[in-house]
Amino acid sequence: MANLKITLTSSVIGRPQKQRDIVKALGLGRVQSAVVLPDNAATRGAVAKINHLVEVTVAD
């Protein structure tokens, strides 16, 4: 299974609490922080909710 590298590109200041919670649950903290997570339905669903705040690439 592939992995996704998720990078926070925008600040969560002024965003709704649900979006802040999703960012925190993914393990992202500051702008430009990145995590590598498995490519599954749960990860893709979370990323879809905050796709305007993150950049996603396929990590090997």
UniProtKB/TrEMBL annotation:
CDD domains: Ribosomal_L30. GO terms for cellular component: cytosolic large ribosomal subunit. One of its GO terms (biological process) is translation. It comes from the Bacteria. The keyword Ribosomal protein applies. HAMAP family: Ribosomal_uL30_B. This is Large ribosomal subunit protein uL30. Keywords: Ribonucleoprotein, Ribosomal protein. PANTHER family: LARGE RIBOSOMAL SUBUNIT PROTEIN UL30M, MITOCHONDRIAL RIBOSOMAL PROTEIN L30. The keyword Translocase does not apply. GO terms for molecular function: structural constituent of ribosome. Residues 4-54 form the Large ribosomal subunit protein uL30-like ferredoxin-like fold domain. Part of the 50S ribosomal subunit. InterPro entries: Ribo_uL30_ferredoxin-like_sf, Ribosomal_uL30_bac-type, Ribosomal_uL30_ferredoxin-like. Belongs to the universal ribosomal protein uL30 family.
